[in-house]
Write a structure and sequence with these properties.
The chain is mainly α. Helix content is about 70%, strand content about 5%. The radius of gyration is 19 Å and the shape is globular. The termini are far apart.
């Protein structure tokens, strides 16, 4: 593939990386003994702003009733608890348990360690280029995901 222009090789590599995201999420679910949607819910709760069940339903693009069943299941397993919203006393917020955070951290440790070894091996000037590229790519993906589909 050396004769392929570098920009095209980057494009191919990025597409392959993105296609593996689903496989990594499925592998994490297997390691945790959870379903894929449960893992997605944990990810939203770990990295997002405070969410209630309806907010989580919107983020997962599932019905509110399905989100309630999912949250009940995660709560029964000790992964999530319902607590007061930090600024609106009338609302309930879903809080990820420390045990769930620890389980995810342990399950992801081999992956995180392997990626850390890769990034540690980058020269600082290369790391800066990679960081900028990945940040810009993240913004492109975020914009695409938020964009409503065109009619027709």
């Amino acid at each position: 593939m050396e004769d392929v222009p570098v920009a095209l090789r980057v494009n191919f590599a990025l597409r392959e990386l993105l296609s593996l995201a689903h496989d990594v999420q499925a592998a994490l679910a297997r390691r945790l003994g959870l379903g894929a949607t449960d893992v997605q819910a944990l990810q939203h709760l770990a990295f997002g702003t405070p969410m209630g069940t309806v907010d989580l339903a919107h983020a997962l693009k599932i019905r509110s009733a399905s989100a309630t069943v999912l949250v009940d299941r995660l709560e029964a397993a000790g992964h999530v608890r319902r607590g007061p919203h930090p600024s609106d006393g009338r609302r309930i917020t879903l809080v990820l348990s420390e045990a769930a955070r620890d389980e995810v951290r342990v399950a992801l440790a081999p992956l995180v360690d392997a990626v850390t070894r890769l990034t540690d091996g980058l020269a600082p000037e290369h790391a800066e280029v990679v960081a900028r590229f990945l940040g810009d790519t993240t913004e492109v993906l975020r914009a695409y995901a938020a964009e409503p589909p065109e009619p027709g």
